[in-house]
Specification:
The structure holds two protein chains of two kinds.
Chain A: E1 2-4, H1 5-15, E2 20-24, H2 30-38, E3 43-46, H3 50-64, E4 68-72, H4 76-90, E5 95-101, H5 117-121, E6 127-130, H6 137-149, E7 155-161, H7 162-166, E8 168-170, H8 190-202, E9 206-210, H9 212-216, H10 220-230, E10 234-236, E11 251-254, H11 261-269, E12 272-276, H12 282-285, E13 296-301, E14 315-318, H13 321-334, H14 340-360, H15 374-384, E15 390-393, H16 397-405, E16 414-415, H17 426-436, E17 442-447, H18 458-464, E18 469-474, H19 479-488, H20 504-510, E19 514-518, H21 521-533, E20 538-543
Helix pairs in contact in A: 1-2, 1-6, 3-4, 3-17, 8-13, 10-13, 11-14, 15-16, 15-21
Chain B: E1 2-10, H1 15-26, E2 32-37, E3 43-51, H2 54-66, E4 70-75, E5 81-92, H3 98-107, E6 111-115, E7 119-126, H4 128-138, E8 143-148, E9 152-155
The chains are: A alpha/beta, B alpha+beta.
The structure holds thiamine diphosphate (TPP) and magnesium ion (MG).
């Protein structure tokens, strides 16, 4: 039986187990939307902006551990999706974005709503395709799923001209995918494992530096057992939070620009740095020559181009993080040289040193009685959700406070735009997360600036009946930029004061959601409790200390030991 | 240091711009580039000359490898290889210089491939340094136009 391209497209999504897609229609996609209406296996979430569709698909994939799917029309639909694609690319999130395109015979004519989206997204996708022949559609989709989720994951874009979607084709049988040019290395080299383990045996001041790769490869358990068995303190990147339990005594929380004092001090003084699925980003390393200057560096990553890109690495291990950690754990299990007690003894002075740093400068803030401190709100959210909510964020101070004070204990509980830092990510991401985990509490921790970048998604929440909670830390500023202005630009608050702002409670109500407000510390807990009880979308407007700063802070370009403290 | 890098690619639309986009996007430079089909119809060979410290060259080869359409990347400097470039040179050839031009081109084993009333077009192949030598010698006679290809390279047969 022959199928149209549009029918084959949906059938191929079903073949890959896709149940939910996020999108927005348009002329070029009308054939697909016509078929979607008849399809009862795939649920289409109509977002109110294409950027939101891509962020939602991104977070859906992160929480579920699958490949998110977004569908947007040609021209402006496709260009609106670009920010979402770039964000997913920089965070290595598996995602497929399907774009409509003008009919093949019009391509290149500057036709109505034509853009060269394959050209535009070439540097921000893992790979992309323009389907020119309807018979290629299904094989390309299969290849795209394979690419998106294997190796170092990432977004793949497929551009589908309108005539391709209308052409009748024979649906090809599924085949195992083997690509001549693409064979990621999953298995670590045994010689490198041996070297790494020997280095760990010798080290007196080791640190594990865990990144998003731990989450992406689901290797949190392997990482945790390694750290506990060898008694190695762990610090995580923004993307790696949840890769190791945040409340574990070995956890030093996040490192880098807004990392903890003790994590940054530990990295600066360690004799062995074990980087797992992390990429030595400038927000982590600060001034590069002062990063882990005394350490031998082990770097486990599936992407060879990440290794020795920014920092020289002594023991590179190109492999899936999970396979590498399994191999390392197995090495210690059979090693006669390894003795857990000795190891504990050997590292004791190091742990004492770290404890000293922790006591000297713990993560903290100055509490106040009459004004709400943002960190207090995060602590309360943590407490009242038992640390078990799925948290998304926008970008700014609130994002850093969340990373510092919501101590994530599990992976796939956290979605933030790390690499690109997109204001407007969190709310659509919360929609994606709630679709992925309908029974979980999902909270977007937002800033008053960022929430306005995709506030229209209240309508999507309403339509899908999603009880997403949004906690707005309302400081009346583009706070993170204001903080830089305060510290480095003579307090010239150029364009960072939100002189005009909507009443967020009323905005929520206008969409049929619920709005709550807290202006005093004593109101924080009752507002959160009430919000958690309501089976509807809730905006919580927390009017917070206006000029609170995020500390510690490593000024850009400085060594990570040069921290500004509370 | 200069490196000649040979890249085997799937012969598909847009592949070249993936490579050049990678170079411009990451701030690597390309000094010359040449690309054409290989023995296999669906495979192209792209040869490019770039320069940079070892760490940069390492990144270049790794990033090229990462492109899904790239089959193989070879840094020719790590192998014994032969390299060639071609130049077409339009040089003034009037009654009193014709013989000299012919003599020069003969020494460098080039060819005259077009003859005009007042000029020749010369074809010359060799390493970049040889081409430069020819150009330097012809310059006083009067070079009107030069078109040079990018470098192409091939590894030598293994001895033994
Ligand atoms: C789309 C986008 N535009 C601009 C920026 C630059 N930027 C980073 S943080 C920030 C301020 C965010 O303000 P708000 O959402 O109120 O958060 P706060 O820092 O006050 O917690 C800005 C403008 C960005 N990250 N993303
Ligand atoms: Mg703000």
């Amino acid at each position: 039986m022959k199928l149209t391209g549009a029918q084959a497209f949906l059938k191929c999504l079903e073949e890959h187990g896709v149940e939910v897609i996020f999108g927005y229609p348009g002329g070029a996609l009308i054939d697909v939307y016509d078929e979607l209406m008849k399809n009862d296996k795939i649920h289409h979430v109509l977002t109110r902006h294409e950027q939101a569709a891509v962020h939602a698909a991104d977070a859906y994939g992160r929480i579920k551990g699958s490949v998110g799917v977004a569908l947007v029309t040609s021209g402006p639909g496709a260009t609106n999706a670009v920010t979402g694609i770039a964000s997913a690319y920089l965070d290595s999130i598996p995602l497929i974005v399907f774009t409509g395109q003008v009919p093949t015979k019009l391509i290149g004519n500057d036709a109505f709503q034509e853009v060269d989206i394959v050209g535009i997204t070439r540097p921000i996708t893992k790979h992309n395709y323009l389907v020119k022949d309807a018979d290629d559609l299904v094989p390309i989709i299969r290849e795209a799923f394979h690419l998106a989720k294997t190796g170092r994951p990432g977004p793949v874009l497929i551009d589908m001209p309108k005539d391709v979607l209308a052409t009748r084709i024979t649906y090809p049988e599924a085949k195992t995918i083997s690509m001549r040019t693409y064979k990621p290395t999953y298995e670590p080299h045994p010689g490198q494992i041996e070297k790494a383990c020997q280095a760990m045996l010798k080290a007196k001041k080791p640190v594990i530096y865990a990144g998003g790769g731990v989450i992406l490869s689901d290797s949190n358990e392997e990482l945790t057992s390694l750290a506990r068995q060898l008694n190695i303190p762990v610090t995580m990147t923004l993307m790696g939070l949840g890769g190791f339990p945040g409340t574990d005594p070995l956890s030093m929380g996040m490192l880098g620009m807004h990392g903890t004092y003790y994590a940054n001090m530990a990295v600066a003084n360690c004799d062995l740095l074990i980087a797992v699925g992390a990429r030595f980003d400038d927000r982590v390393t600060g001034r590069i020559d002062a990063f882990a200057p005394h350490a031998e560096i082990i770097h486990i990553d599936i992407d060879p181009s990440s290794i020795s890109k920014n920092v020289r690495v002594d023991i590179p291990i190109v492999a899936d993080c999970k396979n590498a950690l399994v191999a390392i754990n197995a090495w210690f299990a059979r090693s006669s040289e390894f003795n857990a007690k000795e190891c504990l003894e050997k590292n004791r002075p190091w742990h004492e040193q770290i404890k000293e740093w922790k006591t000297k400068h713990p993560l903290g803030y100055v509490e106040e009685t009459d004004i709400i401190k943002p960190q207090f709100v995060i602590q309360k959210l943590h407490e009242l959700t038992g640390g078990d909510a799925i948290i998304t964020t926008e970008v700014g101070q609130h994002q850093m406070w969340t990373a510092q004070f919501y101590h994530f204990n599990k992976p796939r509980q956290w979605a933030t735009s790390g690499g690109l830092g997109v204001m407007g990510y969190g709310f659509p991401a919360a929609i994606g997360a709630q679709m992925a985990a309908p029974d979980k509490v999902v909270i977007d921790i937002a800033g008053d600036g960022s929430i306005q970048m995709n506030i229209q998604e209240l309508a999507t929440c309403k339509q899908e009946k999603l009880p997403v909670k949004v906690a707005i830390l309302n400081n009346g500023y583009l706070g993170m930029v204001r903080q830089w202005q305060e510290l480095f630009y003579n307090k010239q608050y150029s364009s960072t004061v939100m002189e005009v702002a909507p009443d967020f409670v009323k905005v929520a109500e206008a969409y049929g959601a619920v709005g709550l407000r807290a202006t005093k510390p004593s109101e924080v807990e009752p507002v959160i409790r009430e919000a958690l009880k309501i089976n509807n979308t809730v905006f919580m407007d927390f009017v917070i200390a206006r000029e609170e700063g995020v500390y510690p802070m490593v000024p850009a370009g400085k060594a990570t030991t040069e921290m500004l403290l509370v | 240091m200069k490196h000649t890098i040979s890249v085997l690619l799937q012969n598909k639309p847009g592949v070249l711009s993936r490579v050049t986009g990678l170079f411009s996007g990451r701030g690597f430079n390309i000094e010359s580039l040449s690309v054409a089909q290989t023995l296999e119809q669906d495979v192209s060979c792209l040869t490019l000359v770039t320069s940079g410290e070892d760490t940069i060259i390492e990144q270049i080869t790794k990033q090229l490898h990462k492109l899904i359409d790239v089959i193989k990347v070879t840094d020719m400097c790590e192998h014994d290889n032969v390299e060639r470039e071609m130049a077409l040179i339009r040089v003034k050839a009037e009654a009193h210089t014709r013989a000299e031009v012919l003599r020069i081109i003969d020494i460098f084993r080039g060819k005259v491939i077009d003859v005009g009333p007042k000029s020749y077009v010369l074809e010359i192949t060799g390493k970049a340094s040889k081409l430069q030598a020819v150009i330097d010698i012809l310059r006083p006679i009067g070079i009107q136009e030069i078109v040079r290809s990018g470098t192409i390279a091939m590894t030598r047969a293994q001895k033994s």
